[in-house]
Design brief:
Layout: H1 3-40, H2 55-60, H3 63-66, H4 72-80, H5 90-115, H6 121-140, H7 148-177, H8 188-193, H9 198-229, H10 238-247, H11 252-261, H12 266-275, H13 299-324, H14 327-335, H15 340-351, H16 353-369, H17 372-377, H18 384-393, H19 399-426, H20 446-473, E1 476-478, E2 482-485, H21 488-494, H22 503-533, H23 539-551, H24 554-564, H25 576-599, H26 604-612, H27 617-628, H28 630-646, H29 662-671, H30 675-700
Antiparallel strand pairs: 1-2
Helix pairs in contact: 1-4, 1-6, 5-6, 6-7, 7-19, 7-22, 7-23, 7-24, 9-13, 9-16, 10-13, 11-20, 13-16, 14-15, 16-19, 18-19, 19-23, 19-24, 20-30, 21-30, 22-25, 22-28, 22-29, 25-28, 26-27, 28-30, 29-30
C-alpha cells in the first residue's frame, strides 16, 4: 500500500478514535451528573423553596430516602453507560440510547402525574440528562450530520419551548374547554366572550390600541425627521428622549400623570389658584370651565400615558430606517426640480413605509398588552389586560373567564404580528445595494423645521416636568395637600434594614435579573444560530415557538404560567425559579432578534473554514462566532437585565410575599394609596437603571442598550 494512503488511513483512524472518545467521555459525564443530582438534590419540590427549607424537610424530599421507586432513575442511568462501549453499529447504538432515554423520561414524568407529586430539582436535572442522552442517540443516527452539540442544542431548545411556551398556551385553551368538574364544555368560550360587558371591553381595547398606534407612529415620524434632517441643536436631546422609556417601569409614567393632572395634582391646584373652586365661569345647569376634576382617569389618561411611553419606541423603529435611506435618491428628486416638500412626500415617506407599518403595529400590540397604565389610570375604562387580572386577582377567581379573555388578547396580538410579517415580506424597499454612492442628507423645509422645533420643545418640556414630578414626589409629605420637604418616604423604603421596606423586593429584582439576563442572551443567540444556519426536522416547531414568544402579551404569559405551573407535576408558582424563567422568556425576543441581525452580517465561510479544520461546531461557535458576536451579547444582556427589572404584566401573577419584586411592590403601594412611597421607589429604580445604562455605555464605548429596540 502506498505510504500516502497508509498515512491517510492512520489520520482517519485517529480522528475516528478521537470522536469516539469524545462521545464516550461526554455521555459518561452527563450520566454521572444525573446520578450525583439524584443523590444530593431533592426529588420532590420543597414547599418553601430550596433556600428556606429546614434540614429535615430537605432530607425528606430526597428520592432515595422517601420514595424507593425513584431508585429506578439512577439505575437506568447506570445501565446506559455500557451502551457507549458495546461493539455494534452506530445506528443500533443510537436507537438504543434514544429509545431508552425517551422511555425513561416519559416514565419519570408519568410517575409524577400518577402520584400527583411536584417535581424537584433532582428530578429536573435527571430529565435534562435524559434529554441530552437522547440528543446523543439521534446524533448517532445521523441527525444534523451527527453533530452532537447541535443535536443537543436543538433538543434543549425544543424542550424549553415545549415546556415554557406551548404547554402554558395549551393550558389556557384547556381551561376554556374543560369546566371545574372535568366535563367538556365546547361552547364555554363563546358563552364567556358574548356575556354582558365583554364586547365593550374588547371594543375599548381595540379603540385604544388603534388610536395609540396611529398617534405614536405620527409622533415617532416627526421626531425621527427632526433628529436626522433638522439643523437645530435641539435634535441632540433626542438621545435622552428615547433612552428614558427603556429604563422606566411601564406604569411610572401613569403615576407621574396623576401627580400632574389628578384631582390633587399640580394642574388642578393651579386652576383653583387662578379661577377658584367654581372654575372660570359657570353656565346655567352645567359645571364650570377649568374646574377641578379627575379627568385624567379613563380613556384620556391611559391614552396619554401610552403615547408618552410608546412614542420613543416608534421613534427608534423609524429613525433606524430613515438613517439607512440612500441620500442619492432624494438628491435625484431635487435635481429634477422637485421641492423639498414634494421630495419628502413622494420619495422619503414611501421608502419609510415598512418602518411606519412596523411602528404602527408595534404600537397597537404594545398598547393592547399594556397592563400597568390601565391599572393605574383606567378608572371605569376597562381593557382586556386589566379585565384578565381582576378575573383572577379579584373576588371573581374565574380562571375560565381569564383564559377566554387571554385567548382573545393572544389572537389579537398574533393576528397583528402575522399581518405585519406578511405585509413587510411582500414589498421591497431596498436602497442600499452595496454599490458605493454619495450624497448629502436633504434638510427639512424651513417652515416645517420651525413648527417641529416648537412642538419638540413643548414635548421635551412635558417629559422633563413628568420626570421631575416623579423625583420630587418622593420628597414631599403628601402631593397635592402638603408640599413640605421630607425624607420620610425614602427612610421607610431604605433606612429600616435590608429585611424590611423596599430592600427585599429590590434585591430580589437584582438577583433574578442578573440570572435571567445572560440566560436570555445566550439562549437567544443559540436559537438565532439554529434557525439561521441549520435545516432539520423540527425547524418549524422552533420557528413557530419563537413567533409565539414575540407575539404573546405579558398578561397572557402571566395567566398561562399560573394555570400551567400552579399544580403538580410542575408546581413553581411563587418561587424564584418561575420568576427567573418568566423574565428570561419575556426578554428572549431581544436575544433572538439581536442574534439574527448579527449573524446575517457574518459570512458562513468563516464557519466553514473552521469546520474544514475539524474544529467541531462547539469550538467554532466559541472561537469564531462568539468573539464576533461580543457586542451583540453585551447589548442583549444589558437590555434583558433592564427589561427584567422593569417588567410587571407577567410577574404580578407569579410573585409571592417571599419573591416580591420591585415593580409588584410599587404597584401594591399604589393600590393601597401610598403614592409618596411608590414614586420614591420608582425614582430610585429609574436612577438604578440609568446608572447601569451609563456603565454599559462606558464599558462598550457606545450606546448599545437602546440599539436593541
Amino acid at each position: 500500500m502506498p505510504r500516502r494512503n497508509i498515512a491517510s488511513a492512520e489520520v482517519e483512524d485517529m480522528q475516528i478514535s478521537f470522536g469516539e472518545r469524545s462521545f464516550r467521555v461526554g455521555i459518561i459525564a452527563w450520566l454521572i451528573t444525573g446520578v450525583v443530582a439524584y443523590l444530593v438534590l431533592p426529588w420532590f419540590a420543597l414547599e418553601y423553596g430550596l433556600f428556606d427549607a429546614t434540614g429535615e424537610e430537605y432530607l425528606d424530599a430526597l428520592g432515595w430516602k422517601k420514595y424507593r421507586l425513584s431508585l429506578i432513575a439512577p439505575v437506568v442511568l447506570l445501565l446506559l453507560a455500557p451502551l457507549c462501549f458495546i461493539n455494534t453499529s452506530r445506528k443500533i447504538q443510537g436507537r438504543l440510547l434514544a429509545f431508552v432515554a425517551i422511555a425513561a423520561a416519559l416514565l419519570l414524568v408519568g410517575d409524577f402525574i400518577r402520584t400527583n407529586s411536584s417535581m424537584g430539582l433532582g428530578a429536573a436535572v435527571i430529565l435534562m440528562v435524559l434529554t441530552t442522552v437522547f440528543s446523543y442517540g439521534i446524533a448517532r443516527l445521523g441527525f444534523l450530520q451527527g453533530d452532537t452539540f447541535i443535536s443537543g442544542a436543538v433538543a434543549f431548545i425544543i424542550l424549553i419551548i415545549g415546556i415554557f411556551v406551548f404547554f402554558p398556551i395549551l393550558q389556557i385553551f384547556y381551561k376554556v374547554a374543560i369546566n371545574k368538574e372535568g366535563a367538556i364544555v365546547p361552547f364555554q368560550f363563546f358563552t364567556i366572550i358574548t356575556s354582558f360587558g365583554i364586547g365593550r371591553v374588547v371594543l375599548n381595547t381595540l379603540m385604544l390600541a388603534i388610536s395609540v398606534g396611529a398617534v405614536t407612529t405620527i409622533l415617532g415620524l416627526i421626531f425621527a425627521l427632526y433628529s436626522i434632517r433638522s439643523t437645530s441643536p435641539l435634535r441632540h436631546l433626542m438621545r435622552v428622549f428615547y433612552i428614558l422609556p427603556i429604563i422606566t417601569p411601564p406604569f411610572v409614567v401613569g403615576m407621574s400623570l396623576i401627580l400632574l393632572f389628578g384631582r390633587a395634582g399640580l394642574v388642578n391646584d393651579l386652576l383653583i389658584y387662578l379661577f377658584g373652586n367654581g372654575g372660570l365661569f359657570i353656565p346655567d345647569g352645567s359645571t364650570g370651565i377649568f374646574q377641578r376634576s379627575g379627568y385624567i382617569y379613563g380613556f384620556a389618561g391611559i391614552f396619554l400615558a401610552q403615547i408618552l411611553a410608546l412614542t420613543p419606541v416608534s421613534y427608534m423603529v423609524i429613525v433606524g430606517m430613515l438613517s439607512s435611506i440612500n441620500p442619492a435618491m432624494e438628491e435625484a428628486s431635487l435635481t429634477m426640480r422637485a421641492s423639498r416638500w414634494v421630495t419628502l412626500k413622494k420619495v422619503t415617506l414611501p421608502l419609510l413605509a415598512p418602518g411606519l407599518a412596523n411602528a404602527f403595529l408595534l404600537g397597537v400590540i404594545s398598547s393592547a398588552a399594556d397592563f400597568g397604565n390601565p391599572l393605574v389610570l383606567g378608572g371605569e375604562y376597562d381593557v382586556l389586560s386589566t379585565e384578565i387580572y381582576f378575573s383572577i386577582a379579584g373576588a371573581q377567581l374565574d380562571f375560565a373567564k381569564a383564559a377566554a379573555l387571554g385567548i382573545l388578547l393572544l389572537l389579537l396580538s398574533l393576528s397583528i404580528f402575522l399581518i405585519q410579517k406578511k405585509y413587510l415580506s411582500k414589498k421591497s424597499f431596498v436602497t442600499v445595494t452595496g454599490i458605493q454612492t454619495s450624497g448629502n442628507v436633504t434638510p427639512l423645509p424651513s417652515r416645517m423645521q420651525r413648527y417641529m422645533t416648537m412642538f419638540v420643545s413643548f414635548w421635551l418640556l412635558l417629559i422633563g416636568i413628568l420626570y421631575a414630578s416623579i423625583f420630587l414626589g418622593g420628597f414631599v409629605k403628601q402631593w397635592g395637600a402638603d408640599y413640605t420637604l421630607t425624607l420620610a418616604h425614602h427612610r421607610e423604603l431604605w433606612a429600616n434594614g435590608f429585611t424590611s421596606g423596599g430592600w427585599p423586593s429590590f434585591t430580589n429584582s437584582l438577583f433574578y435579573s442578573f440570572i435571567a439576563a445572560p440566560v436570555t442572551a445566550i439562549t437567544g443567540i443559540l436559537i438565532a444560530y439554529v434557525l439561521t444556519r441549520k435545516q432539520f426536522t423540527g425547524h418549524g416547531v422552533i420557528d413557530f415557538g419563537t413567533v409565539l414568544i414575540f407575539a404573546v402579551p405579558g398578561t397572557v404569559t402571566g395567566i398561562a404560567y399560573i394555570m400551567a405551573f400552579n399544580t403538580a407535576p410542575l408546581e413553581m408558582t411563587g418561587t424564584a425559579v418561575i420568576l427567573i424563567i418568566t423574565m428570561a422568556i419575556r426578554a428572549m425576543p431581544v436575544g433572538i432578534r439581536g442574534g439574527m441581525s448579527a449573524l446575517s452580517q457574518i459570512s458562513t465561510s468563516l464557519e466553514e473554514a473552521s469546520l474544514l479544520q475539524r474544529a467541531g461546531t462547539f469550538k467554532t461557535l466559541r472561537s469564531v462566532l462568539l468573539p464576533l458576536l461580543k457586542s451583540t451579547i453585551i447589548s442583549s444582556t444589558a437590555y434583558s437585565f433592564i427589561r427584567s427589572m422593569t417588567t410587571v404584566s407577567a410577574v404580578i401573577f407569579l410573585a409571592s410575599a417571599g419573591t416580591n419584586v420591585a415593580t409588584t411592590y410599587i404597584l401594591s403601594r399604589v393600590e393601597s394609596g401610598d403614592n409618596g412611597v411608590a414614586v420614591a421607589y420608582g425614582s430610585a429604580l429609574i436612577l438604578t437603571m440609568l446608572v447601569f445604562t451609563l456603565l454599559v455605555q462606558v464599558v462598550t464605548g457606545r450606546s448599545r442598550v437602546e440599539k436593541q429596540m
